[in-house]
Write the structure tokens for this entry.
Amino acid sequence: MSARKRISADKRKEARKEVSLAILKNVPTSPRKMRYVVDMVRGMEVFKALGVLKFSNKAAAEKIEKLLLSAISNWEQKNERKAESGELYIKNISVDGGSMLKRLRPRAQGRGSRIRKRSNHVTLVVDILNSEINK
């Protein structure tokens, strides 16, 4: 690796030092149902978002809550300290479509219709609230 590439790689590594992410793959719910829950917590402070997810009656909220706890834990491991209330927020959260199971359901007159069992991938990025003010 050349010196120039090493310097730019070190800069990128330092920029990602404070940002922590967690990825959840192949969740067996449709992306549309997951996006309803994700839209509730996008941009929130993490502990407030945990409260919203805990009392949501959507099935997808349980999975997002677990993912958020994982992202907080990843941030704490990277920075070697505990997260304080009001410090972290959800910087970016996105839901992408995953693989799809295709099945056939019998219909009238010998026909068949396709059933698509969808899955999704969720990416959650957690960051410090003050990091954008300092830069």
User: Anything to note?
Assistant: The longest strand covers residues 88-106. The radius of gyration is 19 Å. DSSP finds five helices and three strands in the chain. The mean pLDDT is 91.
